[in-house]
Design brief:
With 374 residues, the protein is α+β, with helices and mostly antiparallel strands. The protein has 12 helices and 14 strands. The protein has helices spanning 4-7, 20-39, 86-96, 139-155, 168-178, 182-193, 197-206, 211-219, 227-236, 240-259, 320-329, 350-362; strands at 43-44, 50-52, 70-72, 78-81, 104-113, 125-134, 161-167, 223-224, 265-268, 281-287, 295-299, 313-319, 341-345, 367-371. Strand 13, helix 12 (350-362) and strand 14 (367-371) form a beta-alpha-beta unit.
């Protein structure tokens, strides 16, 4: 039988301790990524670990309520631990930069919490890093965000990865043309984003969607390597909303070509997200050795308006836990600061050895003063 004291030695399910080399590697990788973000002119931002429930409500289109850690304050208001950073940063921006019209660039690092313990071994607490670019609706902002993501990943030592890019407006445009109701659209979104194409096809048939639109929905499951293939899709898009979505991807690929980073990007029009606040360009980053995306992001031009500021925005999040797992699985070394030098002392030379250690520390050399054995 496990005693209460023994039980307290363990962490709850879904969270873990970081220490020693493990924590050093986390700090090294996060430092490299933040360094890259600062080179791009992004400014650090820190938001509270918990917010009012409405910041992450269903109307915002973020994490489902059942997956939130909820509690009450003394006034009886419902609070939640943040499940992702974007709504928090949007809320903060609307509060302090309501009248600002020039582009705003923010970056962050911290813990996010989702109540999914026991599901596929996923963590309840994850370390997230990300960047947000607000007040810029241009395709060049889209390109900057993807370039920053790619260069951040390259800066960690990762070389074999791919960023898959889509545009949720293409899917929504076909839904408009096909006349789908909100419930059917939501169900179809789940099937397509989950790559369950047989279920998607059955749903389209059962709801009586015209053959032409069935084919367009199922066609979006294809991958596209470049602008030429996208132009073929452009010629068959059912309406202006879908055409503009495809053209935006074509323009984005050209911007990435200017950055010299197009080889890291492919297009997938079936790429959708559980976060319904995304309004346009959306993307995910994948690499070897891990079963989930190492990065996600997209454009959310309507989110800030929920907090009273009408402004376009785009951002991304890197899952630091998943990224470091991928680096380790691919045997990519993470070089951290060297261990401190150890200086031993006896009782008769303590002062001499202490002065030696003090001089080393003044020179920036990490040093430990330890008693000699014997």
């Amino acid at each position: 039988m496990i005693s209460k004291k023994q039980e307290l030695l363990h962490t709850p399910e879904g969270v873990w301790d970081h220490y020693g080399v493990d924590l050093k590697e986390y700090r090294e990788i996060s430092g490299r990524i933040l360094g890259k973000m600062h080179l791009y002119g992004y400014e650090d931002i820190k938001t509270p670990v918990f917010e009012y429930f409405d910041v992450f409500s269903r109307e915002v289109g973020t994490t489902p309520s059942r997956e939130l850690y909820k509690f009450f304050d003394r006034a009886g208001d419902t609070l939640v631990l943040r499940p992702d950073f974007t709504p928090s940063v949007a809320r903060c921006t609307a509060k302090y930069f309501m009248d600002e019209t020039k582009p705003l660039r923010f970056c962050y690092e911290g813990s996010a919490f989702v109540n999914i313990t026991g599901l596929q071994g996923k963590l309840s607490e994850s370390t997230q890093m990300g960047a947000e670019l607000m007040n810029d609706a241009s395709v060049y902002a889209d390109g900057e965000m993807l370039a920053l993501l790619i260069e951040s990943l390259l800066g960690t030592g990762l070389t074999q990865f791919q960023i898959t890019v889509g545009n949720v407006e293409y899917f929504k445009g076909i839904c408009d043309a096909a006349g789908l109701d909100e419930e059917t659209e939501a169900q179809l979104r789940d099937y397509i984003s989950g790559k369950n194409y047989y279920a998607a096809e059955s749903l389209l048939i059962d709801t009586g969607v015209e053959k032409e639109y069935q084919e367009q929905f199922l066609k979006i499951t294809d991958f596209f390597d470049g602008a030429e293939e996208l132009r073929e899709v452009l010629s068959t898009a059912p309406n202006e909303r879908s055409r503009e979505a495809v053209q935006r991807l074509i323009d984005l690929m050209e911007v990435l070509r200017c950055h010299g980073l197009e080889k890291y990007v492919s297009c997938d029009l079936s790429l959708l997200s559980k976060y319904r606040y995304y309004t346009g360009i959306i993307f995910k980053g994948y690499t070897y050795g891990v079963g989930e995306a190492i990065a996600t992001g997209g454009r959310y031009d309507a989110l800030l308006e929920h907090f009273g500021k009408k402004a376009p925005a785009i951002g991304f999040m890197i899952g630091l836990d998943t990224l470091i797992e991928a680096l380790r699985m691919q045997h990519i070394p993470i070089h951290t600061e060297e261990d401190p030098e150890v200086v031993f002392y006896y009782e008769d030379n303590y002062e001499e050895q202490l002065q030696k250690v003090r001089e080393m520390r003044k020179e920036g050399i990490a040093a430990i003063l330890c008693p000699a054995e014997g």
